[in-house]
Amino acid sequence: MITRLDAGGPNAIAVSNGIVGDEWTLWIVELALTEGLSKYNEWLNAGPISTAVLTTRLNRLVEADILRRTAGQYLLTKRGRQMWPILLSMWAWEQRWVDAANLPEMRHGKCGRIFSPLLACEACDEVTAARDVLGKFGPSGGWERSIPTGVTRRRAHSGNRPTELITQTMALIGNRWSTALVGAAFLGATRFGEFEQRMGAPPTIVADRLRTFCDIGVLVATPNPQRADWVMYHLTDKGRAFFPVVATVIEWGHRWFQAPEGPALRLTHTKCGRAFHPRLQCGECGERLRGASVQVERSRRSVAT
Ligand SMILES: [Zn+2]
Ligand SMILES: [Zn+2]
């Protein structure tokens, strides 16, 4: 069971990203959260998932204590229920920056409006952007310990994927090297050598991922004014807007998969000077969001066949 981490081993970032960087895992959790699915056959009938994939994912979720198996049902644990801010942040980013067509709309039960979530600081209540948060490795930090655990998973092939596509989210965090690149970019890497060193990946992989990230538009490559042969890579608005996903995954990871030495990463909100813990609020009424007050609406969509 991945409930307790070992000293010197993979840290909270590694374990949480190993879990959320898999489309089918997220799809299973999402349907448990939003539709209340709890039986094997309910998931099997809900989408193009094979029995083999469903069985391995359910077992992994039980091992990670996200689902608990009882009397023929798989029920979300508290750890599993608390994954909703991650899913909400992914949907919001895809809706704003990629394609809303296949994603549900979210209604805030309290104000009754369709909303997008905003990231705020738990300590001072201010809406917070990526550039206002400073990240430094904590006692269990370091690049090597933060590389997502688990097998390197291949992306699901078209025709055999969850119907609610979060394709670009998966391009960013769906495998260990990409996730490491996202982390390196948010922690200030701009040059090829910095990415290479932080990711611990062969240059061909680093080059390939940087190209993909530029193609998707989360990074932009610009010549370095000091060194003509050095290109610099910076996060674009779209790239920085991915920060709520990063922040909610790290928060969830620290809450449930803390290494014995302490946190993997310490985030500081530069505007209030305090430790940054993410909180989602309704973009319409400004109220703090709670899992129970978010209604997922799927009826609007026409399901592509
Ligand atoms: Zn603050
Ligand atoms: Zn609201």
TrEMBL record:
It comes from the Bacteria. Residues 9-102, 161-261 form the HTH hxlR-type domain. Keywords: DNA-binding, Transcription, Transcription regulation. SUPFAM superfamilies: Winged helix' DNA-binding domain (SSF46785). PANTHER family: TRANSCRIPTIONAL REGULATOR, MARR FAMILY, TRANSCRIPTIONAL REGULATORY PROTEIN. This is Helix-turn-helix transcriptional regulator.
